[in-house]
Amino acid sequence: MTLLLFIGGLIGLVLGAELLVRGASKLALSFGISPLVVGLTIVAFGTSAPEMAVSTAAVLNGQTDIAIGNVVGSNIFNVLFVLGVSALITPLIVNIQLIRQEVPIMIGASLLLLALGLDGRISLMDGAVLFSLVLAYTVFLIVQSRAESKAAQNHYSAEFTPAAPGGWDLKLPAQLLLIVAGLGLLVLGSDWLVTASTIFAKALGVSDLVIGLTIVAAGTSMPEVATSVMAAIKGERDIAVGNVVGSSTFNILGCAGLAGVVSGDLGLAMPTAILNFDIWVMIAVSLACLPIFMTGREIARWEGGVFVLYYAAYVAYLILATQQHAALGAFSTAMMSFVIPITLITLIVVLIRREKTPDRPR
After folding, report:
1. Rounded-to-integer distance, Cα 220 and Cα 49, Å
2. Cα radius of gyration (the chain)
């Protein structure tokens, strides 16, 4: 029964986000708002809607560990697993703007979350600052994109078109119904998911934090998985990367910010385990994007494989640490003394070789 509740929650979140984006997009386009603005605002917020819904519901239920674990865990999952699997399908092209602008912004947001949480909580004011930044970031993207080439403008126009004449979603009541249904499914799905996750945690003897970092984080990231994997399959390799980086920034600023605001005067507690380990993993994988993205401005298959293996190692560490398994010490020693140094050396060698090699035509 609990498994059905969890699956039902996931379905509700994904379907709710889809309905909300469709209804809001059609409504905005019918009022004459440009497809560019729709693509950079409504759709961007829509991909992070499951994380926002779950984190907010967790705070309202008093389970703040799930809320912050979901944000941190989703970002680790996005970079290591989603990018890794997408790169295994096909080597991913990295747009130069991602290296110069989007990745540094993602790293900055990660460091800001750490700085605000060092006192042990994300206060109401901290949450307001984070959420204000995601609004400012969105406005910045809109202003920047208006100056882009005609081809970029046409990309959004082709992807987001007003409702066809005679279409059922042309009328205002239908568009409002889509929005209300989407919001309703997000609320219901998030409640089911948080409830089921709590039951899982108690049954497995693990904390809400671990469930939030793993199962909930992976579940709420399903829209990102679907978008990036399908983009890789279709050959839209830059979209696969941009989706993950943009979503990670929205998760930190939007989801953690909204959860902090909803928490009110009590604030959003930052678990010691997060401050001591997981948030550093999140920052490390964000920083790792720069040298990997710079190696020929692509993510090769072997680099994607390394990402996936590191995510498996991260989850294995969480499981071993939760159970206080005897193998934890040996596992940690192997990772810190052998696997991570070898990976760093390999990346440095590849980066040096790529810099000496003339850029390949793309």
Report:
1. 9
2. 20
Question: CB within 8 A of 135, min separation 6: which ones?
Answer: none
Q: Which two tokens stand for residue 216?
A: 């909930």
Give the global pTM: 0.80
**Amino acid present at 25:** S
User: Which of these, 18, 2, 7, lies nearest to 186 by C-alpha position?
Assistant: 18
Task: Please tell me the predicted confidence (pLDDT) of residue 311.
Answer: 92
Which parts of the chain are beta strand (E)? 92-93, 121-122, 268-269, 298-299
Regarding predicted confidence, which is higher, 358 or 93?
Answer: 93
Alpha carbon distance, N-terminus to C-terminus of the chain: 51
Residue 298 — φ and ψ, nearest 5°? -155, 160
Contact in structure between 204 and 57 (CB atoms under 8 Å): no
Q: CB burial class (10 A; 0-12, 13-18, 19+) of residue 151?
A: exposed
> What type of residue is 115?
A
Rounded CA-CA distance 18/28 in Å is 15
Identify whether the C-beta of residue 35 lies closer than 8 Å to the C-beta of residue 168: no
Residue corresponding to tokens 């983009």: 231
Domains and CATH numbers, the chain: 2-162+169-356 (1.20.1420.30)
- Length of the chain measured in residues: 362
Residue where the block lists tokens 């674990």: 69
Helix, coil or strand: residue 317: helix
